[in-house]
């Protein structure tokens, strides 16, 4: 990987964040800029904010690629779903929309996939050659599956049906907060989720991210699994870092999401 600095942008339901990333270290090479997600968060409105962020880094971006994450399934530059953003993103030609707004090529990817790649390249799973499942516990449950450094994109295993329920409706961090659960009360829900994922995929490692991971000592040691389960290292930097890294990889591979 070269020592160039690349802009990564992470679109979320409440904020859109961007920073220059040093791809030799995975560290930010600039301060992070955060702008509140516009309401309604339509493609046109979000594209304007993304342009504002790109313009703010104009003196650093140059002609380097730009990576953008979004809370949606993304296939061939088209957003096929919409989580915590306006439903007009469903089947929207996202890369074309951003490309037209910015006058340059943009690589758009699922936010959890970007975070997972960042943890494998620079974070908690760096150097791991087995099957790694990265989950982000937040408003929902994001997921990334990387097997021997190859990403299986858009897995969405936070939506597994478990005991007749969508997993993230009982195990997401937002549910713990909304129902005012203690960590001891939350652990059985996580146990049920991760033991189910374990039985389906038999991973070599779980990495747990999302804001709640900063309290990992209160719940991860209490989970009884065959698979080692560890906290993410990059936390809220992961999406931006992964976006920047994958944007550069796209120049090397026709499908960089499958060539981590």
- How much β-strand is present in the residues? 15-25%
CATH superfamily of the largest domain: ATPase, nucleotide binding domain
Low-confidence stretches: none
Question: What is the ordering of alpha helices and beta strands?
Answer: EEEEHHEEEHEHEEEEEHHHEEH
Distance between the termini: 12 Å
Task: Describe the structure concisely for a colleague.
Helices cover 30% and strands 25% of the residues.
Description of the molecule:
The chain is of the alpha/beta class. The chain has two domains: 5-111 and 247-258, Nucleotidyltransferase, domain 5 (2-Layer Sandwich); 124-232, Nucleotidyltransferase, domain 5 (2-Layer Sandwich), CATH 3.30.420. It is built from eight helices and 15 strands. The chain has helices at 43-56, 58-61, 94-102, 111-121, 168-171, 173-178, 183-201, 238-249, and strands at residues 5-11, 15-22, 27-28, 33-36, 66-70, 74-75, 78-79, 106-110, 131-137, 141-147, 150-152, 161-162, 165-166, 205-209, 229-231. The strands form four sheets. Strands 1, 2, 3, 4, 5 and 8 form a six-stranded mixed sheet that branches. Strands 11-10-9-14-15 form a five-stranded mixed sheet, covered by helices on one side. The chain has a two-stranded antiparallel ribbon with strand order 6-7. A hairpin with a 3-residue loop joins strand 9 (131-137) and strand 10. Helix 1 crosses helix 3 and helix 4 (111-121) crosses helix 8. The longest helix has 19 residues, at 183-201. The model has no long low-confidence stretch (mean pLDDT 94).
């Amino acid at each position: 990987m070269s020592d160039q600095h690349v802009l990564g942008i992470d679109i979320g339901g409440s904020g859109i964040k961007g920073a220059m990333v040093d791809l030799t270290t995975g560290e930010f090479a600039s301060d992070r800029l955060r702008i509140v997600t516009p309401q309604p968060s339509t493609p046109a409105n979000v594209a304007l904010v993304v342009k504002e962020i790109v313009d703010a880094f104009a003196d650093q971006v140059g002609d380097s690629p730009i990576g953008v994450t979004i809370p949606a399934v993304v296939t061939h530059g088209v957003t096929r779903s919409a989580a915590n953003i306006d439903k007009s993103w469903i089947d929207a030609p996202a890369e074309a929309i951003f490309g037209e707004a910015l006058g340059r090529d943009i690589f758009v990817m699922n936010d959890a996939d970007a975070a997972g790649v960042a943890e494998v390249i620079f974070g908690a799973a760096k150097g791991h050659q087995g099957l790694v499942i990265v989950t982000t516990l937040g408003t929902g449950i994001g997921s990334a599956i990387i097997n021997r450094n190859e990403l299986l994109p858009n897995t969405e295993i936070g939506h597994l049906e478990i005991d007749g329920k969508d997993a993230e409706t009982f195990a997401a961090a937002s549910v713990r907060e909304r129902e005012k659960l203690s960590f001891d009360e939350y652990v059985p829900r996580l146990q049920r989720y991760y033991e189910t994922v374990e039985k389906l995929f038999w991973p070599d490692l779980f990495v747990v991210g999302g804001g709640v991971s900063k309290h990992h000592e209160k719940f991860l040691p209490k989970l009884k699994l065959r698979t080692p389960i560890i906290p993410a290292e990059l936390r809220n930097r992961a999406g931006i870092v992964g976006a920047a890294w994958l944007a550069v990889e796209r120049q090397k591979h026709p499908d960089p999401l499958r060539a981590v």
